[in-house]
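task queued by scheduler; priority normal; single chain, no ligands, no partner chains; default sampling; output format set to structure tokens
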Amino acid sequence: MTERFPDLEIYLLKGTPDAIRDWLSQTFNDVTDVKVSDEHCHWQVAGMDVFLNVNAEKNFSSLWFKQNKTPWNTDLELARAAYSGLSTEIRCSDSGWQESEGEASSGGWIKLNSNGEKPFNWQ
């Protein structure tokens, strides 16, 4: 059985607030704007706080579910769903976060795009 992560985070290539909000609305049907701008968004989604940082890393936006009340157990499961719905490159950590380690346990990443799903090192 897969360990359920307490929160989820993925990175989307050129993720825009409108596209991501539309996807969230299609996926959860219950999305309320808390604070929305061109750079940072905070939504209430089915009882969860969801945050978007549009310019988190070069051309990538960070999408963070602060509480994991989603149908997905891991970042990778979320990444697969987001890629299917948004058709843009998605990146996520390949493992869970361990507080004692201060970083993802293996430090690797997974990239999902039109070439498939592959591990890679993101510097």
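post-processing summary
- The beta strands are 8-13, 31-36, 40-45, 48-57, 60-65, 90-93, 97-98, 103-104, 109-113, 116-120.
- The helical segments are 17-28, 75-86.
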